[in-house]
Amino acid sequence: MIAELGHFALILALLTAVVQGSLPMVGAARGYMPWMSLAAPAALMQLVLVALSFAALTYVYVVSDFTVVNVAENSHSAKPMLYKVTGVWGNHEGSMVLWILILALFGSMVAFFGGNLPPSLKARVLGVQAWIGIGFLLFTLLTSNPFLRVFPAPADGRDLNPLLQDPGLAFHPPLLYAGYVGFSMAFSFAIAALIEGKLDAAWARWVRPWTLLAWAFLTAGIALGSWWAYYELGWGGWWFWDPVENVSFMPWLLGTALLHSAIVVEKRDALKIWTVLLAILTFSLSLMGTFIVRSGLLTSVHAFATDPERGFFILVLLLITVGGSLLLFALRAPVLKPGGLFAPISREGGMVLNNLFLAAACATVFLGTLYPLFLEAIDGSKVSVGPPFYNVTFVPLMVPLLFVMALGPLMPWKRADLAGVFARLKLAALGALAGAAITLYLREGWPVLPAAAMGLVAWLFVASLVEWCERIKLFRAPLGDSWRRARNLPRAAHGMTLAHAGMAIAAAGMIGASVWNLEEVRNLRPGESMQVAGYDYRFDGVEQIQGPNYLADRAQITVTRDGRPVAVLTPEKRLYPVQNMPTTEAAIHTTWVVDLYAVIGDSDGRGGWAVRIFHEPLVPWIWIGCIVMVLGSFVSLSDRRLRIGAPSRKAKAVPAGGHPAPAE
Amino acid sequence: MKRLIAALAFVVAASLGLPAAAVEPDEVLADAALEQRARDLSHEIRCVVCQNESIDSSNAELAKEMRILVRERLVAGDSDQQVLDYLVARYGDFVLLRPPVKPGTYVLWFGPAVITVLGILGVFFFLRRQRRPASAVQPLSAEEEARLARLLDSADASDAGAPAHAQPGQSQKDTAERS
């Protein structure tokens, strides 16, 4: 009964989306107000219906209703409650409903907060959102219905893939989807602006917070997925350049570019056409990220839906969305008037370089991910594109990007004085030298390239802080004065400093992880030890334990350094009997500078066990850096000027908590 | 659906999960220098039954066999390149995680550089056009003015809020100039 209600609500949501995608569009074209104002209530209605449907699906999972095929195939009565709930989106059908729910959520936010948008723009944005919704609802209802029943019902379910039964992965999809779907806002605004033929600073002021929000979610989602791979897969790596990772990384790269070009549109009314193109491409890549792993083109652990009917539907959907929006772009982009002029050496110029390197990096990942498919289709030859390829193509693009990233924030708009900028970066140059020197000192054998890389990262980190300190006149004015300045500084400025510094921290972690990680594997009997990078690992033995829905061998490894205790690591090797699937649970002790990482392997049958120790310098910084970046985004989002829809500088005059007044 | 689940389980089992991870103690060579070469080489070689995984990190049976094979070749005195050639002869280019540079992969290898250079050129011309001061823009010729006025006229007409009184005068001027 509940499942049928959910199914029914989803169908009603589709009908609502059809109304929302048609009448307001016609109304906007004819200037017919009542039809335009239909969009907002329809969007709210959609949210209610989709939320109802999602709640119904969650309910059948929570009560383990195995008469529903989806539940029977992906859940089990003995599964912990957390994974019953997160299992809702741990499968293809459920994850589509989650996608649609997030889309409806974003749509209703425009409806709710968009009171000050020009009515025709609002109607069109919501209309385009509804078109996306129609595509996804049709796809779900026709090919991936999660509410289908099965008769006779099985006695118990087949359980969720044990690899997905993990807190890290449980929340990875919602964050990733919030990122993907968040970019649909920029897309809808871009399409609406193309139809409207008008794009101004107010448009950018609307697009920016949405893009930033999406970017923050996507960053968090990718970081969480990477963290999961790091501790769960048990081979000490955190990024594999796997196609599945790449498709989530491409929208991140272009989304980062979009974030910056939208600032130029807002502040300087320039780069408009390019920004619209970026918005379209970013969302297209997000769609690809959602779909390509499901279309059967790329197989991986994420490919839960490799079925030709779905694959075909997906390709058609992608073709319509991407092809249609690019066609519209080609037809209508010339209508948008080019805006403000600027000198090459300026803040705008810096953003252009940022966009150049990010777009080129994205194109590189695109080629590396899709070219092998293309080549195989052309002449049947198969090639593999792995980390060695990206190390020589992608990494060199990051070097100028990180370099310019330090300069950009110090350059004023319109025209900057490069010599002056470099003069203000003396401290950053010192930091770079120090970073390189410390690396050379700490590591044997003149690691020139890693030292240069660490120098570059230190350059960026110090430069980001220098910019912030200059703005608040730290040490140049009395401390109280600096404090007042810091408080008056727009939140967006704090956010940028945090995000740029976070990038530097994460980059340092990535360099450390790829250059200095060590791996030792040894067969140890209880009581024996091994030494890795100055730490002693004593293997104490293995005990059998019984988890809620798995059996495990848990090893105990005592870590000491120069006789002083450091940590006790308990890596596990689990077996989930329902799916008869083994998993490894690595044990990690972090000192915040280095991770000590232990994995237990097989027994040799004679009392010895394969013990694998990874020494992972600076890896924790990757996650710290990502957290700082996400934090920066939210600090920036709390900025009054960016507060969703706040249109005017007079926002301060609006009573706190109240809605910003409509544009005067 | 059953087939799908089975296929998924296979993919998962083949690519991840199996706890007997990667290089095992019994494979390790006694000679540390050779072992290091073997590890470095292993990062470049794909486990041909896995999802984009090197034989160094894969735990599949085949990856283990390939790792042992690499070590055997190294012990026999092969150079790194000879080991790779040997594997390519057996498994094809597919086995290399760094694809070979050949006509079929020119796009892959040179694409990023070409795109970057094109991007730099695009930015260069864009910025050069930007730098030109607004005053340097040629004023419109009389004929262009007239066309502009006509275009604005027709655009205004389709817009709801066009000031109606402006139209007669402009079209008069328009006709005057044409005659």
Biggest interface: chains and residue counts? Answer: A-B, 73 and 60 residues
Radius of gyration of chain A: 27 Å
- CA radius of gyration of chain B is 34 Å
> What class would the helix/strand composition of chain A place it in?
alpha+beta
Quick description:
The complex is a heterodimer of chains A (664) and B (179). Chain A has helices at 2-30, 33-36, 39-62, 69-74, 81-86, 92-113, 119-143, 167-170, 172-196, 201-232, 243-268, 272-291, 308-332, 347-379, 387-393, 395-407, 418-424, 426-442, 448-471, 479-488, 491-516, 619-637, and strands spanning 518-524, 529-532, 535-546, 551-561, 564-569, 572-576, 581-585, 587-590, 594-603, 609-617. By secondary structure, chain A is α+β, with helices and mostly antiparallel strands.
Strand-helix topology:
The complex is a heterodimer of chains A (664) and B (179).
Chain A: H1 2-30, H2 33-36, H3 39-62, H4 69-74, H5 81-86, H6 92-113, H7 119-143, H8 167-170, H9 172-196, H10 201-232, H11 243-268, H12 272-291, H13 308-332, H14 347-379, H15 387-393, H16 395-407, H17 418-424, H18 426-442, H19 448-471, H20 479-488, H21 491-516, E1 518-524, E2 529-532, E3 535-546, E4 551-561, E5 564-569, E6 572-576, E7 581-585, E8 587-590, E9 594-603, E10 609-617, H22 619-637
Antiparallel strand pairs in A: 1-10, 2-3, 3-4, 4-5, 4-6, 6-7, 8-9, 9-10
Helix pairs in contact in A: 1-3, 1-7, 3-6, 6-7, 6-9, 7-9, 7-13, 9-10, 9-12, 10-11, 10-22, 11-12, 11-14, 12-13, 14-16, 16-19, 18-19, 19-21, 21-22
Chain B: H1 2-15, H2 32-42, H3 61-75, H4 80-91, H5 106-131, H6 142-158, H7 166-178
Helix pairs in contact in B: 2-3, 6-7
Describe the overall structure:
The complex is a heterodimer of chains A (664) and B (179). Chain A has 664 residues and is α+β, with helices and mostly antiparallel strands. Chain A has three domains: 1-160, Four Helix Bundle (Hemerythrin (Met), subunit A), CATH 1.20.120; 195-337 and 347-406, no CATH class; 518-620. Chain A has helices at residues 2-30, 33-36, 39-62, 69-74, 81-86, 92-113, 119-143, 167-170, 172-196, 201-232, 243-268, 272-291, 308-332, 347-379, 387-393, 395-407, 418-424, 426-442, 448-471, 479-488, 491-516, 619-637; strands at 518-524, 529-532, 535-546, 551-561, 564-569, 572-576, 581-585, 587-590, 594-603, 609-617. The longest helix of chain A is centred in the middle third of the chain and has 33 residues, at 347-379. The two termini of chain A are 51 Å apart. Among the domains of chain B are: 2-95, Helicase, Ruva Protein, domain 3 (Orthogonal Bundle); 103-132. Chain B contains seven helices and no strands. Mean pLDDT of chain B is 71; it is low at 1-20 and 157-179. At the A-B interface, α14, α15, β1, β7 and β9 of A face α1 and α5 of B.
